[in-house]
Amino acid sequence: MVDSTALRAAFARRLSAMYGTEVPAYNTLVDVAQEVNREVLERMGADAERLGSIDRVTAERHGAIRVGTPAEMAQVARIFGAMGMYPVGYYDLREAASSSVPVVSTAFRPVDEAELAANPFRVFTSMLVAGDRRFFDEDLERRLGEFLGARRLFPPRLLELADRAEAEGGLDDQAAEEFLTLATRAFELSREPVSRSWYTELERISSVAADIGGVPSTHVNHLTPRVLDIDALYTRMSERGIAMIDAIQGPPRWNGPDLLLRQTSFRALAEPRVFREDDGRVVEDDLRVRFGEVEARGIAVTPAGRALYDELTAELDAALAGQRVTAEERNTVAAGLWEGRVPSTEAELVTGDLAYFTFHTTGHGTGTRPASAPPADLAALLAEGRVTARPIVYEDFLPRSAAGIFQSNLTSDGSKDVTRAGAEFGPEALAGVLGRTLHDPYELYASIRAASLARVRDELGLGREITLPAAR
User: Fold this and answer.
1) Per UniProt, which keywords does this protein have (predicted)?
2) What is the pTM of this model?
């Protein structure tokens, strides 16, 4: 039996190999990321692995795909469910992007602490909202529906194997090989001709809409390795002559703990595609759709920590409004704001309840209880050295950063009629499409923290719950 964990790890490897043949610059990105990671490990030693072992970081990937309809989204959920990947979080890029990005998204990933440690492969998955009148009028929505309804992204055999794997916890060797082959093939870039006029009509609305609804299949939009020093990677990729987007998205580089997620990418490359003209001719041209993203993951923040991040982002926008600044100048201003408001140590993040950590006994007070029973207050346990804290890595995404990556790689801003009302499509609607629970990231992090506190309580022989610090 090949279990869901092994299926997930194997699929991530196969997808990476396939994407590397389609986008050779991705292989360069992976090589540079691993080169930087080795240097950081040599420089920092064990501290470099505070947010995951080097083996985990080296193997880690996140993919991105785009689908057009609720039916396609539900099928994607079945395929990833076979690999122990479940929908986490809701991202509305229609609101996060200033340009035309008419999609809502979720991320399929493991949710269990042990599964994340084994292989944290995640896929950011976006779905077109064709009923949103800011982007699509009634006629275009109808024609989109006809086009998307006529295509089949995933063969019935793949879906059958996916359902069996999820129900039984895995597949036998032969079925696993068939599943992995079909799943990888489903995300290859198609050579089937694309209707030039149809694609161009959608592209005037949104490059993202054209990439989803203007082609007969789906494909990997990007595949993202993880790096321990994204600033060093950005510089090194540029030195190799690979054009990067203008800035690193997310929190600034600063003299404090890494929080949340920082992302950047090389610019979308011109890739050869086959087009069918209205007169029936089939010609070769190119499209700039796919790009190479890379990420540096930090510590997961609590709702209070996220509120602080959002406040600082708004203050940065206000401080720089109307100014033309470089990415480095923007980072300098942002770092100054952070250094005045964000704790500069992990200990302060714990005591301010601004980030998530797991807690572990140090050996003091375990086994036989000391003469004076340890307190049930977490801050006191940490101060006395009875307990230590380890950060929980942020496994999810930032809507504004995702939109920033999308926008930086668009061929145009498209068109968005802000005078019209948008279609209501929130997390409840997305959960209904998926037919399964849409997990809240904060609840997942909190449950991992709570489980660690329960272990500490039992190991220390405490008769009551350990008290968390109050949020600042």
Assistant:
1) Dioxygenase, Iron, Oxidoreductase
2) 0.93
